[in-house]
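Is this the right way to post structure tokens for a design question? Let me know if I should format differently. Anyway, here goes:
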């Protein structure tokens, strides 16, 4: 958000990702690569933001194993360039650094939820890259007093999510099956792991609460505070389907080299500091995700 009124600037590395039809005129979009130092400095110099929500990332764990170098380049170098630009141009700007619960790694908490004091132990390239950005953000707050707010988000879910992510992948396959474009079988990886899923619409509200009501320099878990077994969510999605003959099959290519068995978060700090509470049930999130894929035209396998 910029200095002049409530003007909003959105940045993406490809203009193909912009769908301007539903946005008001005061929202401007710019195509830019976050790893281009001069381009980012020029944008921040011109726009003079008072808030930045840094959500851009290579956020797929699976892809991070395929290309760890690109993951590190985007997630770490892109974040540092923004911090450097703020240090030079507008150090009073508030910035939310969207990091990840993947930083916690395998959590032996004896059944307890993970809070922000839990140690960092990343176990995949994506988590390593986000841990680095997390630490850089804290250092820039301590050294330069940049108003950084750090979120560690657990799994998001909801309409519009890429099929690179597990529940969206399941929903897309069900939509293809219902449309006769895929055999009545859902191909899965490890569905025995447990994760904390939060609707993306609740997550967006959490980011707004953190940057406007939270404390600079602090880390906040963004999560539902509940754990769900992936197989249970798959069963729920299948129960919403118009088809009753869907089978589940293992795809070895969907299995990760290292897969954390169980992870769910404690969101009490976020609630206590900001007053945020989640509003969407897991059932609503799954139904909306499935309806999103049903509404997509030209689906391909």
């Amino acid at each position: 958000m910029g200095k002049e009124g409530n003007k909003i600037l959105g940045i993406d590395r490809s203009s193909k990702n912009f769908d301007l039809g539903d946005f008001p005129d005061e929202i401007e979009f710019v195509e830019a690569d976050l790893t281009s130092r001069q381009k980012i400095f020029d944008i921040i110099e011109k726009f003079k933001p008072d808030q930045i929500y840094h959500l851009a990332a290579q956020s797929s764990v699976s892809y991070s194993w395929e290309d760890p170098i690109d993951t590190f380049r985007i997630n770490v170098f892109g974040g540092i360039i923004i911090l450097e630009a703020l240090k030079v141009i507008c150090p009073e700007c508030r910035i939310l650094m969207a990091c990840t619960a993947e930083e916690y790694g395998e959590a032996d908490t004896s059944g307890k939820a993970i809070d922000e004091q839990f140690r960092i132990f990343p176990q995949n390239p994506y988590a390593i890259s986000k841990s680095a950005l997390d630490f850089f953000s804290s250092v820039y707050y301590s050294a330069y007093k940049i108003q950084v707010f750090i979120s560690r988000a657990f799994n998001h879910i909801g309409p519009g999510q890429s099929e690179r992510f597990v529940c969206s992948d399941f929903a897309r396959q069900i939509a293809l099956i219902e449309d006769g474009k895929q055999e009545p079988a859902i191909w899965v990886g490890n569905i025995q792991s447990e994760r904390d899923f939060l609707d993306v619409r609740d997550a967006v509200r959490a980011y707004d609460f953190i940057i406007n009501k939270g404390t600079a320099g602090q880390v906040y878990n963004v999560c539902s505070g509940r754990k769900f077994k992936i197989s249970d969510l798959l069963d729920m999605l299948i129960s919403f389907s118009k088809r009753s003959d869907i089978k589940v099959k293992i795809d070895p290519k969907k299995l990760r080299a290292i897969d954390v068995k169980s992870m769910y978060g404690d969101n009490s700090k976020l609630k206590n500091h900001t007053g945020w509470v989640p509003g969407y049930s897991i059932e609503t999130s799954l139904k909306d995700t499935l309806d999103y894929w049903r509404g997509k035209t030209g689906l391909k396998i």
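Format looks fine. Someone answered above. Worth noting: The chain has a mean pLDDT of 90. The chain has nine helices and 13 strands.
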